[in-house]
Amino acid sequence: MQTFSIQEIVQASRRVKPFIHHTPIVSSSLLNQWLGHDIFFKAECLQKIGAFKMRGATNFIARSIEEGRRPKRIVANSSGNHAQAVALAASLFDIPATIFTTESVSPVKAAATEYYGAELRKFPTRPEADQAAQEAQTEAGTVWIPPFNHYDVMAGQGTAAYEALTELGEVDAVFAPCGGGGLVSGTLVASRALSPQAQVVGCEPVAANDAARSRRSGKIESLDGPPATIADGVATPSLGDLTFPLVQQLDDFIEVEEAHIIYWAQWLQHLLKLHVEPTSAMCMQGVVQWLKQQESSSRKRILVILSGGNIAEKTSRQIWQDDHLSQLPSL
Amino acid sequence: MQTFSIQEIVQASRRVKPFIHHTPIVSSSLLNQWLGHDIFFKAECLQKIGAFKMRGATNFIARSIEEGRRPKRIVANSSGNHAQAVALAASLFDIPATIFTTESVSPVKAAATEYYGAELRKFPTRPEADQAAQEAQTEAGTVWIPPFNHYDVMAGQGTAAYEALTELGEVDAVFAPCGGGGLVSGTLVASRALSPQAQVVGCEPVAANDAARSRRSGKIESLDGPPATIADGVATPSLGDLTFPLVQQLDDFIEVEEAHIIYWAQWLQHLLKLHVEPTSAMCMQGVVQWLKQQESSSRKRILVILSGGNIAEKTSRQIWQDDHLSQLPSL
């Protein structure tokens, strides 16, 4: 039986190390001055393929090989960061990969996925792509890598917080965005081990709050349809049966309005000089709301996992539509 | 008599080292694959204050102190990166600084300058601000730091290329943007010493081509008025008498159209995940045009100095107005 504890993350960290970037932790002294707290950003936007997803996909494959279950072919269905992560991770282990996606995939994502050596199979609709992926994995030796609901993927994603906390030592709080729950689950387990006093907080758009609703109802709730959020990295319809119990254990969970996501996307790009995607910027509003709830005003040390930096061109246009830089951040 | 050779840059490098960031060199494997060459970006957008200007201001002050000419007060007139560089550099040496600027300075720039501890004096117009700065420097012990036309500033700016080439070894070409000519002058001298075979190339917007015209006419030409370019970092009206002779020695000089500046601003932000300002992105079009002129198609190693990452909110809006990510880069 598989388990999920800090041991899995320590093992994952050892496994993925040769294949991923050790991303930097960055800060803005200006932001820290304005808020009166120290905020450390783990810059996974500088990770290979531009997102933390590289960690989970790499750990999944590396563990399979380590345990003598080397896949003959790898398949995944995604139009986003997971597809690119699987494509690149598979190529690093010289395993052929096929990505099942829709015909609407952007040329730049398609080009990147193919550059990483994967075959890209496009279908008119998402259900058709999912169906084809499901059929493909019935072939002997073909392995499907799930986007979040698997302990090896969750452990891989947890290596980002593990790396960061190994460098930073203990902190008062750790923030991560929550889509399917893979990143936030791994972050929780890593944080409990390396910074046991830290509050671990998940963040989600109000407009895609299936995880918040699941925490309230005690069962996995789903979005009714594609959510109207700029934070496309967390537009996942529902948590998985492995991630949900961990999401329930988070110390706090904050739902963020679209306007605040956009505000922080502008500000974090400006202050950090990094191409921070809305999904990551969202957490900064979580930090502000959490800080306002704290009784003690003592200076806090806060870790934020900046999950990625892959921003569609039309999303960048949305981010910069109005001026938010004239309104300085404060608590 | 002051001179300007690699010795000054080596000295500057030693002087500024404790006060500045050693910025990373970044690459995009995808871009390198598409173009068939290896392009190395020196990420001065991750420098303190978000631009290379920190190097020149720091070297200027550090050298004054080293030679027993410690300023009692430092003044500068700028509404851009130079103001913030002087403000921060002065504070690092515990010297009071006053920045003369216009009332139209953006709140975020004003807040940053004041956070660095400088007094900000605002005037209705730029000539009034310049006049006040000129008067201020007549006081005993008050020193004005020029934005580019000074060997200590030029040597400081040259430390970016010096650092990069020390790491990279020899390259085939080095690209830098040209405004007042401080960065490109320092880059030329550093490159001649560390990579003598390298072509050193300056880049300028067609819409602000005073330096290109100066190279053609053999005397310093000025812009007629504020230029219509998105590359605000190189909107300087003219070269200085110290930078002009060095700009004349550049191996090539490329004038870039606005549409190409915007194209590369989108692409470099996307590929490098860095907040690259248009002035820096401009050089990538210079690289493409230069590569097309080369007779041999052998794989080239190219260094590009990404000068900074300070982008006004309305400039970001301009950058992302149209979609360029659907058109993949190629030669």
What does this molecule look like?
Two copies of one chain form a homodimer. By secondary structure, chain A is α/β, with parallel strands linked by helices. Chain A has two domains: 6-51 and 151-319, Rossmann fold, CATH 3.40.50; 53-144, Rossmann fold. Helices cover 44% and strands 15% of the residues of chain A. The first copy, chain A, contains 13 helices and ten strands. Chain A has helices spanning 6-16, 29-35, 53-66, 81-92, 107-115, 126-136, 151-168, 182-194, 210-217, 243-248, 258-272, 278-293, 313-319; strands at 25-26, 38-43, 73-77, 97-102, 119-123, 142-144, 173-177, 199-205, 252-256, 301-306. In chain A, the strands form two sheets. A six-stranded mixed sheet of chain A has the order 1-2-10-7-8-9, sandwiched between helices. Chain A has a four-stranded parallel sheet with strand order 5-4-3-6. In chain A, helix 8 links the parallel strand 7 and strand 8. In chain A, helix 3 (53-66) runs parallel beside helix 4 (81-92). The first copy, chain A, is globular. In chain A, 56% of the residues are buried.
